[in-house]
């Protein structure tokens, strides 16, 4: 039996000074309880009891290059010795911005920040300034940060969420101001007919459509063919800005983001996680004429925006991602396909109803009879989350760490041998949850 006693002791100590023992609410829900870690390198994470794990959490997505990537660390170390914060400009900001503008289809200009949450706010403010309208249309099950005006209908209990065709907005936290709900509209994702109906009624009230281009905060749900194109068309028709929240998909689904992969160009997009190689950085990119409003009448500020460490990390991470014509992406594609197919085959052999969907760099594993998960309610109503939770713990006990919500991330640092070890652990974990 695996020993987690040191983690347990630290959690007890932490709970005296940190609410729930953690710094981010999502971590409190981790099964069997939040673990403490001491070290991470490549695809391996080691906890305080000395247990190593093959890591598919990867910092919740940012570590596309793996933990402690040497080129990123060297760049950061070198840059930060010359200063950390100038409260003024430095050349690395231009370098990273030029790379983003070159790689991302919608990027005419960019603004830097420290987290996805804050730059989603900047994107919404800009959309309201451009259109002179208030409302933001978003989708059930999408997460856009923890702020009042976006923590709505992210994981609504189905009994509170109202009818599918006309969902109720469900706040995600106590203490949110009720006013923000008046500015938000919500629909199920991947249903263009419902979007068309809403636009026909209220299209001229909407400032922006805010969407994850692949729904990664509930499963790993690709857009159905024509859905993003349909949103683009509706936005053009009604003078609405299309904002893609690429915080997870950006650089994970390819060098041009999900927008490049799916061939639909938004007006604005938010990038974060994978662009920083494990360091805190985020970018809002978009059409030049819109972005230039930041130079005139739209405010966006931040003490740490564009700081030396963030920019050095981003410059180094982006250079690694571009190396050898996308070798990182080919590696992840090959190993991720092997892992996805392997999980499917093992489940099939045991006659277990397991669905594996998404892309090799970010895929979802669920216990369900469905042949595809297309929207939040499919997941909420038709996936056995209790069984997945037990499966997750069984994997952890065998040295494989995945997120409780079912998404698996892959990195350039994973090896074929680690994929084979993972599949052995998956087989044993499936056997464990089969009998219960
Ligand atoms: N948007 C999406 C799609 C996300 O997944 C997240 C974080 N998981 C955020 C925004 C918020 O980003 P951050 O945690 O950096 O504030």
TrEMBL record:
It comes from the Bacteria. PROSITE patterns: AA_TRANSFER_CLASS_3 (PS00600). Its cofactor is pyridoxal 5'-phosphate. GO terms for molecular function: pyridoxal phosphate binding; transaminase activity. Keywords: Aminotransferase, Pyridoxal phosphate, Transferase. InterPro entries: Aminotrans_3, Aminotrans_3_PPA_site, PyrdxlP-dep_Trfase, PyrdxlP-dep_Trfase_major, PyrdxlP-dep_Trfase_small. The keyword Transferase applies. CDD domains: OAT_like. Belongs to the class-III pyridoxal-phosphate-dependent aminotransferase family. PANTHER family: GLUTAMATE-1-SEMIALDEHYDE 2,1-AMINOMUTASE, GLUTAMATE-1-SEMIALDEHYDE 2,1-AMINOMUTASE 1, CHLOROPLASTIC-RELATED. This is Aminotransferase class-III.
């Amino acid at each position: 039996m695996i020993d987690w006693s040191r983690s347990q002791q630290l959690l007890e100590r932490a709970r005296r000074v940190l609410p729930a023992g953690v710094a981010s609410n999502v971590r409190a829900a981790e099964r069997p309880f939040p673990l403490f870690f001491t070290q991470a390198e490549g695809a391996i994470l080691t906890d305080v009891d000395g247990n190593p794990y093959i890591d598919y959490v990867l910092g919740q997505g940012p570590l596309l290059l793996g933990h402690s990537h040497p080129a990123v660390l060297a760049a950061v170390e070198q840059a930060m010795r010359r200063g950390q914060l100038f409260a003024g400009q430095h050349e690395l900001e231009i370098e990273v911005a030029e790379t983003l503008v070159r790689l991302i289809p919608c990027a005419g200009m960019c603004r830097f920040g420290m987290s996805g949450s804050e730059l989603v706010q900047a994107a919404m403010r800009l959309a309201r300034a451009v259109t002179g309208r208030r409302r933001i249309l978003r989708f059930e099950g999408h997460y856009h940060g923890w702020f009042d005006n976006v923590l709505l209908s992210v994981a609504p209990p189905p009994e509170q969420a109202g009818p599918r065709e006309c969902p109720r907005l469900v706040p995600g936290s106590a203490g949110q101001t009720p006013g923000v709900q008046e500015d938000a509209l919500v629909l199920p994702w991947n249903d263009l007919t419902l979007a068309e109906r809403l636009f026909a009624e209220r299209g001229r009230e909407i400032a922006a459509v805010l969407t994850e281009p692949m729904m990664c905060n509930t499963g790993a749900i690709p857009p159905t063919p024509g859905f993003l194109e349909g949103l683009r068309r509706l936005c053009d028709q009604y003078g609405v800005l299309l904002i893609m929240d690429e915080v997870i998909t950006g650089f994970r689904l390819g060098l041009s983001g999900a927008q490049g992969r799916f061939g639909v160009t938004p007006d604005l997009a938010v990038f974060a996680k994978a662009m920083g190689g494990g360091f805190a950085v985020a970018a809002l990119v978009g059409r030049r004429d819109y972005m230039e409003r930041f130079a005139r009448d739209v405010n966006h500020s931040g003490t740490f925006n564009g700081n030396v460490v963030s920019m050095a990390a981003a410059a180094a991470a982006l250079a690694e991602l571009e190396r050898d014509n996308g070798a990182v992406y080919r590696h992840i594609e090959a190993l991720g396909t092997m892992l996805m197919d392997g999980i499917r085959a093992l489940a099939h052999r045991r006659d277990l109803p397991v669905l594996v969907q998404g892309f090799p760099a970010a895929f979802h594993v669920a216990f369900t009879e469905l042949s595809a998960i297309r929207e939040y309610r499919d997941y909420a109503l038709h996936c056995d989350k209790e069984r997945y939770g037990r499966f997750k713990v069984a994997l952890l006990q065998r040295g494989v760490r995945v997120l409780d919500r079912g998404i698996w991330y892959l990195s350039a640092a994973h090896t074929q041998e680690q994929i084979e070890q993972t599949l052995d652990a998956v087989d044993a974990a499936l056997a464990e949850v089969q009998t219960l």
